[in-house]
Amino acid sequence: xxxxxxxLGEGSDLIVRYAYIxxxxxxxxxLNWICQDDCQVIEGYRGKDEQVLIGxxxxxxxxxxxxxxxxxxKSYLPIRLGEAMDSxxxxxxxxxxxAFQTTSDQMVKELLNESGSTAVAALFQGKNLHISNCGDTxxxxxxxxxxxxxxxxxxxxxxxxxxxxxxxxxxxxxxxNTEVLTFGMKDGRVPISDEFGSPEDPDVSADPPRIWVKGxxxxxxxxxxxxxxxxxxxxxxxxxxxxxxxxxxxxDKYMVLCTDGLTEFxxxxxxxxxxxxxxxxxxxxxxxxxxxxxxxxxxxxWTDDITVCVCYFxxx
Length: 316
What we know:
Elements: E1 2-7, E2 14-23, E3 37-43, E4 51-60, H1 66-87, H2 92-110, E5 116-125, E6 128-134, E7 138-144, E8 151-155, H3 165-174, E9 178-181, H4 183-186, H5 202-205, E10 210-213, E11 219-221, E12 227-228, H6 230-233, E13 242-247, E14 252-258, H7 260-263, H8 268-277, H9 281-300, E15 306-315
Helix pairs in contact: 1-2, 8-9
């Protein structure tokens, strides 16, 4: 766990209090399991007090490489982003796109075909907030509804999963030798269809749509974008992130960046409820992780790695 506080400069009137936790998953048959998530907060990014870079990474791959993939993404991305900002004249969207691609290219060279990482990054430039996401790691903003005490969750990123029709269409259009099927469809237990239902449905999320090479048993991934993953790149899995921009105002109260270990059982509304309940981001982190952990154990008997970074926005 790490916690801190940063003043985003005289012109922003904003102090960000933050904390994060990376919780190792529990696997009864793999008691030597190594956490494949990672997280970082870089205050004064590139020597500027008003700049803070936060990254959350969810590695995957064969045993011994999933954690390495997350570590490599965490190590390379801040460097590549700085280089890209120099080359683009500080244009953040273009810089994030270039940085994610060059980070992925380097990971492809250094990892096995099945190894990679999803990533979500938040760059503060004073009150200017830029979010870059590749995969199913997520960024959520908590906004105070105007004229009310209600807290409204706003997704600053959109999960890159095969549930998304636009992502399926892109992959099938550009890679006609691929197919998108659930395990049940793949082995003939379920009729083949392009109606996959809602990822919020527990029965549906237990067997999500996945990307396959036709007639083969790989890559079998449910995410449509990631860093690394050399084999999956041949089937349309991109390293190009989606980048969004948000101008922070006093109605913005909280931000949460997390891996899918947290959102497997908790909704955005649930997550923001914990933020509103607690005065300290560290307490929110602990409660979120423990709640998600308990849900996993009760439902599955095991848990995914769970990583969450919670930011509280204090307006002067």
